[in-house]
Amino acid sequence: MKQTPSTEQSAVLRKTVLFCQGCEYHAPTTGSWVIHEKASCEVYECPHCRETVTVRDRMD
Ligand SMILES: [Zn+2]
Q: pLDDT by residue (tens digit) across 17-29?
């Protein structure tokens, strides 16, 4: 019973789910990914197999 949507917040967070290519791990961007903050981007890394999952541009 871990799917208990609680109003607007989860609706927003649910929009982006990342899938690891190296294993079967998947989680929303707010999940337990290892995030390396670079000067101009953020590198999301799988906490299980260390595969780079995605690179997001930093807006600020
Ligand atoms: Zn993985």
A: 999 999 999 999 9
Q: Of all residues in the chain, what percent carry a pLDDT higher than 70?
A: 75
Domain span including residue 38: 14-57
Examine residue 1 and state whether it is found in any structural domain, yes or no: no
Residues near ligand 1 ion, CB 5 Å cutoff: 20, 22-23, 25, 46, 48-49, 51
Q: Which two tokens stand for residue 42?
A: 């953020």
pTM as predicted: 0.70
Interatomic CA distance for residues 36 and 6, integer angstroms:
29
Asked if residue 32 is part of any domain, the answer here is yes
Count how many domains the chain has: 1
> CB neighbours of 38 closer than 8 A, spacing ≥ 6?
58
